[in-house]
Amino acid sequence: YEACAEAAGWLRARLREPPRVALVCGSGLGALAQELSEPQSFDYAEIPHFPRSTVQGHAGRLVIGRLGSAPCAVLQGRFHLYEGYSPAQVVFPVRVLALAGVHTLVLTNAAGSLRPHLGAGHLLVMRDHIDIPGLAGRSPLVGPNDDRFGPRFPAMTDAYDPGLRRLALALAPKELRARPGVYVGVGGPSYETPAECRLLRRLGADAVG
Prior knowledge:
Elements lengths: L1 H11 L8 E5 L11 E7 L17 E7 L2 E7 L10 H4 L1 H9 L3 E4 L4 E2 L10 E8 H4 L26 H10 L7 E7 L8 H9 L4 E2 L1
Parallel strand pairs: 1-4, 1-5, 7-8, 8-9
Antiparallel strand pairs: 2-3, 3-4, 6-9
Helix pairs in contact: 1-3
């Protein structure tokens, strides 16, 4: 907690206003930061205790400004278990931004479709997920619980806000063919075998990454 609080304090001391919404950009989506007005940009290497992004196409910058009327933080690049980071390091930026004032988090990524009706460029709005590493004990919640981050046993019935999901489906451009679905997270970095894809479909997943 102390490392997260130090990083959040470092940011607050430099920001014109605290962000209320954060977007974590997956592969190919980092250009969204160019839509921010009055942006302030910080390399991950500048921020105390922040991990370093090693994936090609992930710029490794935190950009904070206004998206429309909303004070917004855009993470250009995220962190993965397959880079050698622990689960706690993977979620470190999200915890920092929560302490810095963020109350709404939007996660994005480029994922593989497990269903014929989900084609390249289509938008899946997550209604639920299957966390394979988490089921195997690779979770940031494993270990001593710090109540300042949340309860020991968080409920996951509505992990993704129903109101925001409805809004995303209503506002998405028609060409994206947005629909709700279930995302399954795996460890990577290899892509899934055909047999693994068949297994994940039978588990009820619509997309994998």
